[in-house]
Design goal:
The protein is mainly β. It has three domains: 63 residues, no CATH class; 65 residues, no CATH class; 88 residues. The protein contains two helices and 14 strands. Bound molecules: zinc ion (2 copies). One zinc ion (ZN) binds next to loops.
Length: 229
């Protein structure tokens, strides 16, 4: 529909009385506001202009803005990051959905066990820069803290660190799917947690460390059935 032009200026209609056949008129680039920064630019695909991409108007300056998506699994804590730019938003979203689908289909065979509940979401690119080691995802609901299957079997000792407490557990029976001693009160604003032992983990981080292994870090989410007080 829109023709590419070298210049961003729209030329006023030379013959304003002729309204019956708009297709005969020179079709200069429309001026549209960038959906990100609001700058008004000609939609001409030029370096001083804007493009239409995935139903949005993107000015040339905003095309390179970073975007990030992550696929994640509520069952095992797996996460997969996809980074791209606003220009590549659609393909990045497609990729993160594919990663999610691949993860679920990998675990859907009955011989492996229950299907995994995976999903995806857009995240702030700044969140990506913070992570220099893998951080997994877990959640708390009415039964307590969800323990991913790979951490349920431990041989002698396991240590939980939450913003509020450090909890050492001994035994050889391993853990069930939920650990009831860790609830919502362990997390939140460090100023409001009573005797916070590990305030650097606030508001929503924790680690689980089986004896002799590196601690595994988690971001904790709240199950929907838990009231947030
Ligand atoms: Zn812009
Ligand atoms: Zn999984």
């Amino acid at each position: 529909m829109t023709q590419k032009t070298l210049f961003g200026d729209t030329v006023p209609n030379p013959n304003p009385t002729d309204e019956t056949s708009p297709s005969d008129q020179p079709n200069d680039s429309q001026i549209e506001a960038c959906d990100l920064c609001g700058d008004e630019r000609p939609v001409n695909g030029e370096l001083d202009g804007a493009i239409e991409r995935g139903g949005r108007i993107l000015c040339a300056d905003c095309c390179g803005t970073p975007v990030a998506f992550e696929a994640f699994c509520r069952s095992c804590g797996w996460r997969h990051l996809v980074e791209d730019t606003e220009f590549g938003r659609d393909r990045a979203r497609t990729r993160v959905q594919q990663e999610r689908n691949t993860h679920e289909s990998t675990y859907e065979h009955i011989c492996i066990g229950p299907a995994h509940d995976a999903d995806w979401r857009e995240i702030e690119p700044e969140e990506v820069a913070e992570e220099d080691h893998p951080v997994y995802l877990t959640h708390i609901d009415a039964d307590g803290l969800y323990i991913p299957p790979q951490l349920r079997g431990f041989t002698s000792q396991i240590v939980f660190r939450t913003p509020r407490a450090t909890i050492q557990m001994f035994g050889t029976d391993g853990l069930g799917p939920y650990y009831p001693l860790i609830d919502k009160s362990h997390f939140g604003d460090p100023e409001e947690i009573l005797d916070a032992r590990n305030p650097e983990l606030a508001p929503d981080r924790m680690t689980i460390k089986p004896q002799g292994e590196e601690p595994v870090e988690f971001v904790v989410e709240w199950g929907e059935e838990v009231s947030l007080q």
